[in-house]
Amino acid sequence: ILTSRLTDRPIRPLFPKGFTDEVQIMSNVMSSDGVNDPDVLSITAASAALMVSGLPFRGPIAAVRVGMEGETLVLMPTVEQMKTSKLDLVVAGSRDAVLMIEGFGQQIPEQEMGDAIMFAHRHIQSLCQLQLKLVAETGIQLPVIAEPAENPFYGRLRAEAYAALTEAKTAKMKQERAERVRALKKSLVEKYFPNEAETTADGLTKAQFANADVRERIFHGLDSADTHHTANAFVMSPGGAILFFAGDFSCREL
């Protein structure tokens, strides 16, 4: 399951809006030497398969694992090397950018972690170049999918409700946040669709209203209103370690 999540996260956003076909990627380990962990290879293999599939995939991407032996960065360390490595870092990216970082380190300084990420990205670029060579040899042309027109409700709701939604989402308690958001949505429905009307005065539908995504937030630091993979509370342990509670969407744990 964890390998599937690692594969899905950097790939899913690279399909264009308007592409709604179901895509399944099956990664199977056909042979293993027991020395190298094949999990990260799934990401690069999935990208390579999509690049020659004829689907509108905006790749290529690739991924590598980085470990450390002493103070030396190690590309794709073996299972045995990982037993003593103080860094277990999985990085996925395209030729131009880092798309995903997953892993942990044992009190790795910020500069060293940054160096490890850039070290990984240089090798990711090489793997992406190999995939482009593969595409050139197959002669496959990737289709172009026209992105759908912007929902006409989006601009209206952003101008009218974005500030109120942001304020509602800053409530400290989860139940209070939900109640504020429901009240805001109810007031907008009553305004645009009075007396349970199915369309607005200018012909917009309830479906367009429901699909107008204005759920955006710009975070400045972390606080208890952050609800997904962010820290709700920091606690200093007697030994000096910093502990934190996970957000509402995760299991609460130390």
What does this molecule look like?
17% of the residues are buried. The chain is flat and about 70 Å long. The longest helix has 29 residues, at 110-138. The chain contains seven helices and six strands. With 254 residues, it is α+β, with helices and mostly antiparallel strands. It is 38% helix and 14% strand. The two termini are 22 Å apart. The chain has three domains: 2-138, Ribosomal Protein S5, domain 2, CATH 3.30.230.70; 150-216; 219-254, no CATH class. A hairpin with a 4-residue loop joins strand 3 (87-93) and strand 4 (98-105). It has helices at residues 2-11, 41-51, 79-82, 110-138, 152-169, 174-192, 206-210, and strands at 62-69, 72-75, 87-93, 98-105, 233-236, 242-245. GO terms for molecular function: 3'-5'-RNA exonuclease activity; polyribonucleotide nucleotidyltransferase activity; RNA binding. One of its GO terms (cellular component) is cytosol. Residues 2-56, 59-122 form the Exoribonuclease phosphorolytic domain. One of its GO terms (biological process) is mRNA catabolic process. Keywords: RNA-binding.
Give a brief description:
With 254 residues, the protein is an alpha+beta fold.
Secondary structure layout plus pairing:
Blueprint: H1 2-11, H2 41-51, E1 62-69, E2 72-75, H3 79-82, E3 87-93, E4 98-105, H4 110-138, H5 152-169, H6 174-192, H7 206-210, E5 233-236, E6 242-245
Antiparallel strand pairs: 1-2, 1-3, 3-4, 5-6
Helix pairs in contact: 1-2, 2-4, 5-6
